[in-house]
Amino acid sequence: MIFDKDTAKKTAELLLQINAIKLQPQEPFTWASGWKSPIYCDNRVTLSYPEIRKYLSKTLAGFIEKEYGKPDVIAGVATGAIGIGMLVAEQLDLPFIYVRPEAKKHGRKNQIEGIVPTGKNVVVVEDLISTGKSSLNAVKALKEVNANVKGMVAIFNYGFDIAVENFNQAALSLHTLSSYENLLEQALDTNYITQDQQQTLQSWRTNPAEWSI
Question: Which residues constitute the domain of residue 129?
Fold first, then answer.
């Protein structure tokens, strides 16, 4: 679920403006999963733009307080959301931790870096939601130390059905600044893509695992 239409539009505009999101319907990218994709999203680019990162972190922080009340801890999902998560925690003057995909194999063998939030209210910050698997893996790690995970917020969401299903099964609320549909709408309105390219991008969204040009 997006925060609101105006926020979704502005976020999509900013991400396109700095090429954090690249649309290449005719020259698709290859994801780590092996999927061919006409879109590539790297929200870490936003950290290089002070005004944009300030807008994103302030908007996320404001929504967290409105939706969940002020939590005890902000958790970022490693590695993509460490930067934006820390900025959100700074906005709210809260402790920050981050969660690795799995425990380290050396040293203290931590999966959660920072003070373990046992018994604390936590909101998780993500940069990007695709299937939701890695995001929910972080939530699982937090719950295993008896943290009370209130919900998750993110910058961008592809809106895949599998992600909706995964978050429903986990009984966890997810809110994002913008989504794939908002992005296509903004890209078309600003002539970043043509109507033919929009149709290609929409067809990918329907069945990304088997999509090809």
Answer: 5-210
Of the candidates 128, 135, 57, 147, the one whose C-alpha atom is nearest the C-alpha of residue 93 is 57
54-65 pLDDT, tens digit each: 999 999 999 999
Q: Of 204, 149, 158, 147, whose CA–CA distance to 181 is shortest?
A: 158
**For 155-200, how does the pLDDT look when each residue is reduced to its tens digit (9 = 90+)?**
999 999 899 999 999 999 999 999 999 999 999 999 988 998 898 8
Nearest CA-CA partner of 152 in 21, 16, 42, 140: 140
Domain count, the chain: 1
Which CATH number belongs to the domain containing residue 188 in this structure?
3.40.50.2020
Tokens read off for 208: 């990304």
- Residue 39 sits at the vertex; the CA angle it makes with 9 and 98, to the nearest 5 degrees, is 75
Give the whole-angstrom CA distance, residue 17 versus residue 155: 15
